[in-house]
Amino acid sequence: MAYQHYILVCGGTGCESNKADAIYRALQRETETHDLTHAVQVVKTGCFGFCAQGPIVKILPEESFYVEVTPEDAAELISEHIVKGRPVTRLLYKEEQSKEHARVDDISFYQKQFRVVLRNCGFIDPEEISEYISREGYVALERVLFDLSPQDVISELKTSGLRGRGGAGFPTWMKWNFTREQTSDQKYVVCNADEGDPGAYMDRSILEGDPHSVLEAMAICGRTIGANKGFIYIRAEYPLAIGRLERAIAQATEFGLLGKDILGSGFDFEIEIRLGAGAFVCGEETALLASIEGERGMPRPRPPFPSVKGLWGEPTVINNVETLANIPVILTRGGEWFAKIGTEKSKGTKVFALTGKIANSGLVEVPMGTPLRDIIFNIGGGIPDGKAFKAVQTGGPSGGVITAEHLDTPIDYEHLQELGSIMGSGGMIVMDESDCMIDVTKFYLEFTVEESCGKCAPCRVGGRKLHDILTKISKGQGTQEDIDTMRQIGTAMQRASLCGLGQTAPNPILSTLRYFKAEYDAHIDQGVCPAGKCKELVHFSIITDKCIGCGLCARRCPVLCISGERRQPHEIDQSKCIKCGECFTACKFDAVLRA
Amino acid sequence: MAKMSLDDLRAMRDQKRRELEMRDADNKTVQIIVGMGTSGIAAGAKNTLSAFLAELEQHGLTNVSLRQTGSLGLDHAEPTVEVRMADMPTVIYGKVTPKVAGEIVRSHIMNKTLVDEHVFDRPAADILERKEQ
Description:
In chain A, 38% of the residues lie in helices and 14% in strands. Chain A is α/β, with parallel strands linked by helices. Chain A folds into five domains: 5-91, Glutaredoxin (3-Layer(aba) Sandwich); 129-337, 3-Layer(aba) Sandwich (Rossmann fold); 349-432, Ubiquitin-like (UB roll); 437-526, NADH-ubiquinone oxidoreductase 51kDa subunit, iron-sulphur binding domain (de novo design (two linked rop proteins)); 539-594, Alpha-Beta Plaits.
């Protein structure tokens, strides 16, 4: 026997601290009082990602969404909503009106996310082409083959305002149009699936969850620019995505949606997969093309741009996975529909991979212009363990940090650039007060030094120099002159490097110098790492008066360098200590001193 | 399947859509949809899937279709599973270990009672469904 109503009480950490448990018990008590236990089930749920307005109570099947509920509201929810069937209006969620970003009219829903690119991820079986077809799949290709001229497609894209999601934000219609205008017997469409930023996995999820949207978009592009051959360049470390793509290509070819004479239109289009070995520089378009050609993956100077001289010297459109996944929707719904989402200059949505010190890590898709605060504190559920938010890193090794004072900045291409960061591909790494900005910056520099292809000196030498200086600072041996040197090298790299990798490699340093200069000063002038992360500058010891000898720290210590009798103060053997901080975190009596 | 013409494609789209709608509407079929992206599999989605199979077999439930899909994006709650059936609201379960999979079959499907502490929210409305409403 099914219940008539299900009452869901959000039990995420945010709501939990807001008396979610008391609400849960109050609701259960009220259900019993009204003798409704046979008709109503009250359950505690995982985080609903709407924490700023918690505690949340949702009633099914009506989908009523109640916010800022208190235990005292329980009686009214049961007697009004459940017994009399009247929603408790004062607690219902009301859409905020004064948003900078316009929403599509028919989605004035409580959800903060709006899924265009991820429309099929988590809905369809990615290995079954008919499921994609049933959800408006290949409708756009139909239109492009039979109703729209290439010029129509270009102008639809222009109306939509779609810009490249790989990071730079170049208008997609322009790229397609440049390539279309070239006269050549052979042109190519290339999908850049070489997702390399640490912590970014948007493209992987799209390819794993909805591979046909990318195939359809590539065929549309081929028809528009006059190409009959496409390549997907994907890293070999994405085996599941590759497997699903291969299957999708095979099914589409079998069904006649790829291959010769597609749907009897006379248009031919084939797609091949090319695997990359995972070099970061191969995400740069000219290096990527070299890699497809079988050459070593190194960039070359532009111009000529790939739209003029690309793969094997032929005109080539190269688009990122997420950019392509938008195309079928735009051509099915129309450019105007798409242009209603987002801000004036940044249209549509953006998928972000939310990782780091965040309660609800995962993929989120929001309209452009959504404030960072919404992403982190509503969808993301805030920072775990009650720690304070420090910064969020966007754009990976090419990006920068955004600090607490800029949490309300609308996220789009222009605003991020103003703040000294970039959109990048969409990785968002959240940091809390226990993260040291010098340590984080050093991590990114290590990455770019490792991944530099070595062709041009500014990147090869400059990156190494910057990394050396950062290492020096993290050991407390830096000087204020080092800061000036880093700025000089950074500026030189930005101006003189051959490709985006070197040009943007100094960004994490320049950005943290802008917002966290005080932290550099603390390392340099006082020899102190305020977050306690830089190993050379931190020292752990046990305060004898406070230690009760419980032995917890000794059990946690990975190198077994803490010793002592039970119920007696313990001691840390400094010669063996690796400064991991486990004892500091473990101690419940504040007896471990970090200095 | 041979190559399709434009009409074949349109016919297939309609037919498949009706089929899926019928599956949603019909009283018999229960759908369990397991998120099988990299993050889901890394969190143990394959074991969850096997646990569902074993549990369904043990109770002799033959009216259940067990399917896979890509990632919903709820990485903090992987493995995620959606359950659709008549007389019950469509629910997304998170942190579905093999043990929880068993509870979903016994409690949600056989007893029509939600499994406490594991219900999560779908992250966004479906742009396709809302257009049709």
